[in-house]
């Protein structure tokens, strides 16, 4: 087994802003249930242990930023058919050195993967906040097994939004929230949970 390298000081410096914002956001987050609260503590543990926790080079795992993008009428969710994984996923990805906030990273990824601009984050008490956390094992772009500590925000697209397929995707399309893709390329339980959490946020009480 190869020993894990210590954090690169240059990477730590480049991610200092988004790392600090991620910790601030998660410490202030009101988790919806005990399971999500326990996950939040795991996220905070990673952030405390690794000053490069928001960088993809953090081998034990790293924070990623996702966007659950709903249509203007809230009846559909925008998903991308990931070219490498072959699954329909919510939009999102790695934090980059230029990201000042985790919300900004999620918005940037959503725009890059969909071509849509002007995505509006959903506010809670006047502040954008995550709706769902997930940790999953993955072999990402560095080619070695790691874990994504994924933070999901909710955005709403403008009326008549038409997404554009990016280089990372085989397809990108709105899917009705009550008819999410199934089968070999269907969504997994994590995506379903994120969509459910998003709808709970925009449709209080169901």
> Low-confidence segments, ≥5 residues, pLDDT <50?
none
Report the strand count.
10
| Rounded average pLDDT | 91
Strand content: 25-35%
Number of helices: 5
Backbone shape: globular
Class per helix and strand makeup: alpha+beta
Q: For the CA atoms, what is the radius of gyration?
A: 16 Å
Walk me through what this model shows:
- By secondary structure, the protein is an alpha+beta fold.
- 30% of the residues lie in helices and 27% in strands.
- It has 5 helices and 10 strands, in the order αααββββαββββββα.
- The chain has helices at residues 9-14, 16-28, 34-49, 102-114, 189-202; strands spanning 62-70, 76-82, 88-89, 91-94, 120-121, 123-124, 127-128, 132-139, 145-156, 169-176.
- Strands 1, 2, 3, 4, 5, 8, 9 and 10 form an 8-stranded mixed beta sheet that branches. A two-stranded antiparallel sheet has the order 6-7.
- Strand 6 and strand 7 form a beta hairpin.
- The radius of gyration is 16 Å and the shape is globular.
- The mean pLDDT is 91.
């Amino acid at each position: 087994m190869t020993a894990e390298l210590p954090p690169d000081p240059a990477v730590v410096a480049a991610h200092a802003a988004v790392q600090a914002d991620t910790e601030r956001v998660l410490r202030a987050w009101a988790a919806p249930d005990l399971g999500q609260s326990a996950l939040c503590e795991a996220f905070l543990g990673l952030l405390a242990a690794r000053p490069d926790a928001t960088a993809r080079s953090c081998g034990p795992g790293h924070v990623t930023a996702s966007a659950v993008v709903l249509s203007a009428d809230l009846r559909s969710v925008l998903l991308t058919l990931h070219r490498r994984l072959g699954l329909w996923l919510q939009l999102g990805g790695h934090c980059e050195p230029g990201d000042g906030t985790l919300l900004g990273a999620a918005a940037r990824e959503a725009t890059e993967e969909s071509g849509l601009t002007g995505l509006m984050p959903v506010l809670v008490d006047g502040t954008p906040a995550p709706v769902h956390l997930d940790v999953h094992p993955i072999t990402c772009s560095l080619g070695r097994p790691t874990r994504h500590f994924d933070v999901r925000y909710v955005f709403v697209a403008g009326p008549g939004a038409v997404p554009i397929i990016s280089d990372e995707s085989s397809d990108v399309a709105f899917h009705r929230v009550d008819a999410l893709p199934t089968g070999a390329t269907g969504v997994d339980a994590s995506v379903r949970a994120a969509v459910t959490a998003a709808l709970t946020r925009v449709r209080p009480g169901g």
